[in-house]
Amino acid sequence: MDEHIITSLLHEGAPIDNFGIGEKLITSASAPVLSGVYKLAATESNGQSTPKIKVSASREKLTIPGDKQVYRLYEPGTQRAFADLIALATETIVDATSLTVVNSDPLSVDRQQRLTHFEARPLLAPVDLSNTTSIPVTTIQATTQAKLAELPRTTQRLVNPDLYPVYMTTTLSQLQTSLLNKMTILAD
Q1: Could you point out which of 136, 146, 157, 180 has its C-alpha 20 to 30 Å from the C-alpha of 129?
Q2: Shortest CA distance to 166 belongs to which of 91, 130, 117, 113?
Q3: First-last CA distance in the chain
Q4: Any idea what the Cα angle at residue 121 is, between residues 44 and 95, rounded to 5°?
Q5: Phi and psi for 114 in degrees, rounded to 5?
Q6: Where are the domains positioned within the chain?
Q7: What share of the chain is helix, strand, coil (3-state, %, to 5)?
Q8: Nearest Cα to 73, choosing from 63, 64, 65, 83?
Q9: Which DSSP category does 136 fall into?
């Protein structure tokens, strides 16, 4: 079984409430490698955060440095998201009539873009690790489903989904470029 068979079965109303996926869960024939990995973005010493960057010969593997906040951008007065925006945690993005952003895809030809008339809502919230009260799985599931429902339906298709834009602030982009330039100077 794979996502296409499961979607088809559910769409046809099959009375199934559990699926056994097996190795299809581990790998995908069309994209056998997960494109995201954890990489060091900052270190902290004496309460001071220092942004870090991983340099690679492959531009798309260049990390986005620093402590970050992710904002979901909505059409004003709606629950319709049209993009996400990665910012430094120290930046505050408020509802805006105009903001210059940078495409987070390092291979993008048109890197800078101007966004107009949107509402910005932060997606990341601090978690108190000393709090022993756990969040029920059902709460996590409901929150995840609600956030997915905000995305355009065309991005949720299993076959030929539209790309969902992810931008970064110009401040974050400038930090990335600055750290990259420092690494280049050190390598020379």
Answers
A1: 146
A2: 113
A3: 52
A4: 110
A5: -105, 120
A6: 1-30, 37-186
A7: 25, 25, 50
A8: 83
A9: P
Q: What is the dihedral of CA 128, 79, 68, 32, to 10 degrees?
A: 100
Torsion, Cα 21 26 32 33, to 10 degrees, reads 140
- Cα distances from 93 to residues 36, 120, 166, in angstroms, run 25, 6, 15
Domain 37-186 is in which class?
Answer: alpha beta
Residue 28 tokens read as: 């995908």
**Residue whose tokens read 């046809």:** 12
H/E run at residue 51: strand 48-51
**Angle CA(153)–CA(156)–CA(160) in degrees, nearest 5?**
105
pTM: 0.75
The amino acid present at 16, given as its one-letter code, is: I
Of 95, 100, 93, nearest to 78 by C-alpha is: 95
